[in-house]
Amino acid sequence: MNLNNPRRGGQPQLVIFFIVIAGILLIMDQRGMLDGVLARVRSPLIGMTGRLSDLNDPLRQPVDLEAATSEIAALRQRIEQLEQENSQLRVVESEYIRIRQALDLQNDAPNIKTVMGQVVGKGSNPAFDDLIIDVGSDDGVRVGMPVRSSRGLVGQVFQTTANAAQVVLLTDASVSVPSRLSQARALGVVRGGGSGGLLTLEFVALEAPLTVGDVVLTAGIQGETTQELIANRFPPDLVIGQVIKVERSDAALFQTAIVQPDVDFDGVETVFVITDFDVIDTTLFGGGQP
Questions:
Q1: What number of CA atoms fall less than 13 Å from residue 72's CA on the CB side?
Q2: Alpha-carbon gap, residue 73 to 250, rounded angstroms
Q3: Taking Cα atoms as reference points, which of 124, 119, 144 lies closest to residue 134?
Q4: Which of 37, 173, 272, 274 is placed for a possible disulfide with 193 were both Cys, Cβ 3.0 to 4.6 Å?
Q5: pLDDT tens digit sequence for 58-80
Q6: Is the separation of the CB atoms in 283 and 122 below 8 Å?
Q7: CA–CA–CA angle 169, 106, 237 (5° rounding)
Q8: Which runs of consecutive H residues, i.e. helices, occur in the chain?
Q9: What is the CATH code of the structural domain delimited by 109-282?
């Protein structure tokens, strides 16, 4: 027998050690002295148990996915409904704006009668700057009647059918409008055909204080007649545009200006055909036909 083997001699002592420790722990547990220690030990174990239980959640995923799919479908349906309501509100808003514009024009000029129409397209002849509107002779629209928008003068009726009309725009080369300057108080004639949709103001007296920024208005007088169309029969004080450039020469008899129209002819949607207004009769002085 080898008495020097430490393993055989140490085992009884180790057993006695654990028995003593177990006894001490048993006594401490009975006296409640281990509650705090056990609580610290249990907390991580409970957390681990919770995480392990979360691993079982994929088993319940098909139920949650079905509910989520149903909720997404309901939300999409609600979005479509809101989009439809929004479109309807835009239509109502557009109609309100049209009515408001008509009322404002009527209040601003109670002596001027108008027929409201919508722009539906352009004519097929590329030689004309024109618009087609959805009111015609059945609505009281006649050839030669002025057409305006809420911003200012648009043009003049050139042809009509029972329920539509062709409007020649101010920018067309055939149009000429007797005009006056709001600040300079001078008279002139606005003509279309300018580059880039601009207008030309001609025959302004050299002594007139013509400046950039002056507003050009209709003068309200009647002049020349071209091809049975009274091309400049417009009521007074309709806005035409604003002077953006002045051309003056000492050798010239008159001043000339470039005018930016106030109306966006490409974006205009609602127009008002002026069916009746007080005309300044100048026929006695050779100014043209009535």
A1: 6
A2: 76
A3: 119
A4: 173
A5: 544 455 788 888 889 889 988 98
A6: no
A7: 50
A8: 6-30, 35-54, 61-108
A9: 2.40.10.340
Contact (Cβ atoms closer than 8 angstroms) between residue 222 and residue 288 = yes
**Residue 39: what pLDDT?**
59
Distance CA 214, CA 210 (A): 7
Which structure tokens are listed for 251? 């050798």
The predicted model scores a pTM of 0.60
Contact, 201 vs 188, CB < 8 A?
Answer: yes
Look at residue 76 and give its three-state secondary structure. helix
Domain segments of the chain as ranges: 10-55, 59-105, 109-282
Compute the distance between CA of residue 278 and CA of residue 113 in angstroms, rounded to an integer. Answer: 10
Structure tokens at 32: 């409640």
Name the nearest CA neighbour of 145 among 234, 228, 223.
234
Q: Would you give the DSSP letter of residue 57?
A: G
Q: Who has greater pLDDT, 88 or 230?
A: 88
Q: Give pLDDT tens digits for 163-189.
A: 999 999 999 988 889 999 998 889 999
By CB atoms closer than 10 A (0-12, 13-18, 19+), residue 93 is exposed
Q: How many residues does the chain have?
A: 290
Integer Cα distance of 2 and 202 in angstroms: 134
CA neighbor of 271 nearest in space, from 150, 96, 130: 150
Tokens at 60, concatenated: 């319940």
